[in-house]
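Please describe what follows:
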Amino acid sequence: MQRSASASSGASAVSEGGSSASASARARSTGGTATAIASATSNAFSEAKSELVVIYARIFNEYSFEDPTDDVDGWCTSAFSDLFEEFKAIGEVSAEAYASTEVVAEVDGEGEACADAEAAAVAQAEGYAEVVVDAILEAASNYPDILARVDAVVNAKIEVLVTAFAEAWSSACAGDDSSASAYQDSVASAFAFPICGVTLDLFAEVDCLTSDAFVDAYVEAFNYPADEVFAETASGAVTEGDATADAGGSAGATVEVRCSGLLAYCCRRSIRDLDTCTCTSSPNARCDVEKRDDLWYNNETGEECSC
């Protein structure tokens, strides 16, 4: 009578930018075959000032646009098409995370085989208004109209934090003449494109972020899911005979607008835990915001932001 045991495992983790990833896999056999595989990838992108200065200088010097018309959708999509190659380099703040595990345990005859795998990935990226303002001021020194608007336009749009995470695990054990397998896939992504909106607003005082056609064109061009935040999980488990198989995981994504400009006052250490904020220490209120689910809600504009 011949008996054999084999076990194999593999794990890979890749992270880029402001992200992290981990993966582990274990396989054990006293008769039969056990296989475990785990992988995790994460990627985060946010702008760097050096890249912004070069690209903004090229935009200001080389591109010209027709005056805006009442057709905001048409103007914004046309301008985006002209600047697509530039926006590919700087036009996003994005985070993506993926975690996957797969295990198989099979015993032909007597013995036991078990396999376990787990993976996790987290990505986070932030758009900093100060970085963008400094880059534009440096690149647009010969454009007084742009310089006059830069602080107001950028501070109103650019402070954003995007986060994505994904977790996955699976395990399988099989006894005599049995088999088990399980898998888990978890994926999440979050993105925002404030730099595009800022750029076009600076050129022509047009808020293209309010244009559904512009947003649709951006999403299609960058091959993003239809929503700014996306999360999906899939699980599977199969057993035959004396065996067990389990799998699970989670995924999540968020896009948070950071309080900036006037509302930055509400994020001071002495203010941030209060229920209301007036954006000033004087009796004359400069804003009317209240706390809702740990976010500051602007009663005048309906916008929300976080500290």
